Amino acid sequence: MSVNQMTEFNQAHEVIKAKDLLEELIELYDDVVTEGNQIFAKWKEEITRSDFEESARNLSYYLALRQRDIRGIQKDLVPWGLSSLGRLEAKTLSTLEAVISALSAIVGDKSQIKQPDFKEFSVGEAKLASNIEKILGQAPSNRYTRIMVTMPSEVSEDIELAKNLISKGMNVARINCAHDNTEIWQKMIHNIRKSAKELGKDVKILMDIAGPKIRTEWIYTTYKKPKVSVSDKICLTTNNQMLPTNQEVKVTVGTSVPEIINQLSVGDPVLIDDGSIESIVESINEEEAILLVKRVNGKSIRLKAEKGLNFPGLYFDIDILTDEDLDAMKFAVEHADIIGCSFIRDVKDVEAIQAELDKLLGNKAGTVALLFKIETVQAVNNLTQLILKAASRNPLSIMIARGDLAVETGYIRLAEVQQQIMWICEAANIPVVWGTEVLANMLETGIPSRAEVTDAAEGARSDCVMINKGNYMLETVTMLDEILHMMKEHQFKKTPKLRALSIAKNIMID
Q1: Which residues form the Pyruvate kinase barrel domain (predicted)?
Q2: What is the pLDDT of residue 9?
């Protein structure tokens, strides 16, 4: 066989492979359309917000696609100079149609699937941008990603602090309803609104309802230095009248949600203080659970009151809104732009929140913007149902609350889960807030760690980055503003933006 014959043979072989790939793509497309339509049909009657209908349809197609492993197809598309389908979240069908149309042209096949209108590729992005502006405020001139800041109590008395935070780049002010009271919240809101008006800025106010956060309420011990180590035992109790006399127990702990005790079983995991203490239930009765410590941060650690309790993988039948939450929500619907909801787990929780809004606002309940904090395994597993149920009635945004979520899922799984949440939300045109411990060292000491600078840059792929309160808030907002401004030139969501690199110009060519 001559060289020319060999070349022709190879080319013919490649065309055959391309035709096989085309058939595989068309089959994939047909399945995605069929199953996507079935998913959408289940939810269509629930959607009362016309703004969400097309977003829900695209999400349905995306979910149908992501039920399949298409890595082989992605790899085979690359040599043909075609999209590898890695950035189709907001334009699922249009991307598939464009790739099929292009591959059909390459192999000389007249496919019934035509090249979509170019405008279809920007519909999802435009819808997301509109949703972000409605919920999180106008886009800053220098960056895409907004900045959310948790308000310290001092903002209620110090209007200059509010003004400085806004001038440095704050776009959303977060008020944590687990702290302070309505009088202080009112003063905070007044100072924020007044400062924003004076500066000509659009600053949204989020009131974050605490939810059923399970915490250590009080601590009792007979030890002078009540630190716990591996193999120590902790008593988790509902009884604050009669303290246990079990000599094997080093520390006795009361809980803020006592009804969880009778929902635990022997062997269940119990994590304390953001996972600093890992334990399992060794024994249990109606009033108490004895926890065996399996691992601690360091050799030993002091157990304190008001620290979080996590139960990875467990579901507790407790109300999503406490009595305190109901009072906070009454205030929030009158004063806030966004109502944050913590520890959302399933559709039942969404229904309870929307029912309370109906009670408070009647036919205006659907105008309230909600922010759901995803911080439990149940919320991750139910994410699409949560989005469809909530966004069908209310403008919705999602916060990746990485603190509790890391404890619940484990740190290794968190790295994957936080990306998956962003993909699902982009497919539904839902704004995402990147939260928890962003630039935490900078806030505390004024000096950022190398890792947290990288983390903040990763947050630029979201629509808003949240920082907490701390000693160096103004400096941290300034730094985050600069990081997000820089990343705007390099990244949008999953898409790298290839501007000219100065380091690429330094090469010497003779």
Answers
A1: 143-476
A2: 40
Same domain, 222 and 295: yes
Rounded CA separation 135/149 (Å): 15
CA distance 374 to 399: 6
Q: Residue 204 sits in a domain of what CATH number?
A: 3.20.20.60
Contact 55, 392 (CB under 8 A): no
Do residues 120 and 91 make contact, with C-beta atoms less than 8 angstroms apart? yes
Residue 350 belongs to a domain: yes
In the chain, % of residues over pLDDT 70:
95
Q: How many residues does the chain have?
A: 510
Report d(CA 81, CA 83) in Å as an integer: 7
Q: How many domains does the chain have?
A: 3
> Is residue 465 located within the same domain as residue 369?
yes
Domain contains 427: yes
Residue 427: alpha-carbon gap to chain centroid: 14
The answer to whether residue 151 is domain-embedded is yes
The CA-CA-CA angle for residues 297, 298, 300, to 5°, reads 90
**What's the 3-state SS for 176-192?**
ECCCCCHHHHHHHHHHH
- The tens digit of pLDDT for each residue in 250-305 reads 899 998 888 889 899 999 999 999 899 999 999 998 889 999 999 999 999 998 89
- 208 and 220 fall within a common domain: no
Nearest CA among 502, 470, 507, 509 for reference residue 486: 502
